[in-house]
Design brief:
SAM-dependent_MTases_sf, alpha/beta, 3 domains, Rossmann fold, binds 2-acetamido-2-deoxy-beta-D-glucopyranose, transferase, SAM_O-MeTrfase, 282 residues
Length: 282
Amino acid sequence: MWLFAVSVPLLPALLMVSRRCRVKVSSLCRRALNWALGLVQGRACVRSTHAFVFSNCTHGKVDSVLQTFDLYAETRPSLSIGPETGEALDDVVRRVRPSRALELGTHCGYSSVRLLRLLPPAGRLITVELDPLAAELGEEIILVAGFKHSQVLTSPSAEAIPALRSRPGPDQRGGGGFELVLMDHDPRQYLPDLLALERDELLCRSGCSVLLVNRRRRAEDLGEVLDHIRARAGRCCSIRTELPFMVEIFYQKENTETEGRSVGGTSEVGMKLFRLGRARCG
Ligand SMILES: *[C@@H]1O[C@H](CO)[C@@H](O)[C@H](O)[C@H]1NC(C)=O
């Protein structure tokens, strides 16, 4: 709400300047207003989704929490990823069976709850949310669903990622790092965050699935990050599944070349193993 309070007194000034450079300012103004509106609408949406789920679900029952979210989304605009994307997410989680998962973009806590219910008892989820209100309400929903050991970090992903490096992991199996990362925040952050996760060695070297949610279902939203992956395909990351609403990137960083040489001895066997290693990675 404070955004309105701030942007309204600025309007006359903007209009005055606009006489000189009308086109530039009007587009700038429209963008600023859309951004402010988006934020206000997003917050209203988080509040009403939270109120609906909180008062209508059976507390402590995961399935009831998810069903209540879906019921809400049937008739109202919602920030939850919904059952279709949710089921695709479940399939990946069941296949990857992560014990450490990271979510960027908590929103109302819907996908956090979906993820948590499929983690092993010792599994951990860290979820990062930029908006303090969404983080608080999302965390409450996670608790309502009966999960007490997840962590909600309120900060921009670009600040949360370097801070995660210094956090000691619960277990260092597979060289540490997350086995599953769900990106559902700002698609413009997907590539820089992926690179930061890689740089800070937060992606499990023996295999990590990075899921990119494409809420607007617009190919150009993921264009940059997918071009980057395609350019490096076969070396350490590749696109595993590509759906209109979600893309799965598989990341793996094992030194397959050394593995081939040490096991194979002769170059032919070595090459075969090397190729196998690459195929497994790609
Ligand atoms: C709970 O569900 C009922 C029936 O769908 C709905 O009318 C009511 O507004 C919901 N509660 C809240 C707080 O949203």
